[in-house]
Amino acid sequence: MEGETAALARRIRDPGATHDMTVNDDLAAAAPEVMRHRPRLLGLGYRMLGDVQEAEDVVQEAYLRWFQDGREDVLSPEAWLVTVVTRLSVDRLRKAQTSRISYVGPWLPEPVATEPPPDAGTEQASDLSIAMLMLLERLAPEERAIFLLRDVFDAEYGEIARIMGRSEPSVRQAVHRARERVRGGRTRFAAPADVQGELLRRFREALAADDREAVLALLAPDVTFTSDGGGMVNAARNVIVGADRVMRLILGVERKFYGGTTERWIQLNGEPTLVRLHDGEIVQTVSIATDGERITAFYIVMNPHKLRGLASGPRAIE
Fold first, then answer.
1. Core-most of 58, 116, 181, 238, by most CB within 10 Å?
2. Whole-angstrom Cα distance, residue 57 to residue 148?
């Protein structure tokens, strides 16, 4: 069984693999039916954990349980898999929240490459953005799962109650509380991707010109600057708040550290993002939140462990 499990694990991590599997023909025939749910499961795990590898691990575990134990009597493989991924993610998030207490400096989600939207001018779903993932950090693990299942994945209250092992009235109350907590941190206007990208480009141009007034004009008075170096590279150990403080920090860092880097625009977490490269390797991602007129938050990821996955291209995340 151990060799069978290892072979199956390799197939799950690489659904397009063509090497032989030691699982029986019935399982092999069933694989395409259950494997088609992987992007949705990975999307749920990533939104729960903010870490692609962690999300892949919980999805892998769910599939291993499915194939090892046999699920011929399950009417809905998708519902079963969503239940397992949700519960595994809740358990992992509880442990992650404990370990993040000792994290060096602010923690940010791992950025993930995504395909650009079909119409860059439309207001796209913001539930994958770094800003939204940071708002979800306000929620307790079970509350986060309930909110995502309802507001992102459109699950019915009865289905969520079954997944979470709670009553339907309790789920409804949890959804209401979670919405209030998340809305409390959102701007009144969710800017379309093209507006957000244009603001970030104008900011970058003002920064390159060392134009302090132009930079300041693009920042909201209470703008925040959050950088995640994970203790591995130099980064601000606290969140910086206020337009003047953020401007002075960014201008100072720009002059001192980024002379030998190149820049590129790519799609991360469903949004246009500026990345900096050194010798062809991504060393920093810069994403923002905006009210449509000014930048309200900067999210800078520099932790090398969180940037390694970007070289592999877009992820199949729904």
1. 58
2. 19
Within 70-129, where are the H helices? 77-99
Neighbours of 2 (CB within 10 A): 6
- Is residue 200 classed as helix, strand or coil in its secondary structure? helix
Q: Measured between alpha carbons, how far is residue 8 from residues 26, 45, 79, 81, 217 in Å?
A: 14, 20, 21, 16, 55
Please give the sequence-ordered ranges of beta strands (E in DSSP) within the chain, or none if there are none: 219-228, 240-241, 262-268, 271-278, 281-290, 295-301
* Long-range contacts of residues 170-174, Cβ cutoff 8 Å, at least 24 apart: 171/146, 174/142, 174/143, 174/146, 174/147
Q: Among 181, 174, 185, which Cα is nearest to 146's?
A: 174
How confident is the prediction along the chain (318 residues), in pLDDT tens digits per residue? 344 334 434 444 444 443 333 444 444 455 777 888 999 999 999 999 999 999 999 999 999 888 887 666 777 889 999 999 999 999 999 999 888 889 999 999 999 988 754 444 333 446 789 999 999 999 999 999 999 999 999 999 999 999 999 999 999 999 999 999 988 766 544 677 788 889 999 999 998 888 999 999 999 999 999 999 999 998 999 999 999 999 999 988 877 766 678 899 999 998 899 999 988 899 999 999 998 899 999 999 999 999 998 877 666 677
Residue 49 sits at φ, ψ, to 5 deg, of -110, -20
CA atoms of 208 and 166, how far apart (whole Å): 54
- DSSP classification of residue 222: E
Q: Name the packing angle between helices 77-99 and 25-35 (round to 10°).
A: 70
Which residue type sits at 54?
Answer: E
Asked if 82 contacts 41 with a C-beta cutoff of 8 angstroms, the reply is yes
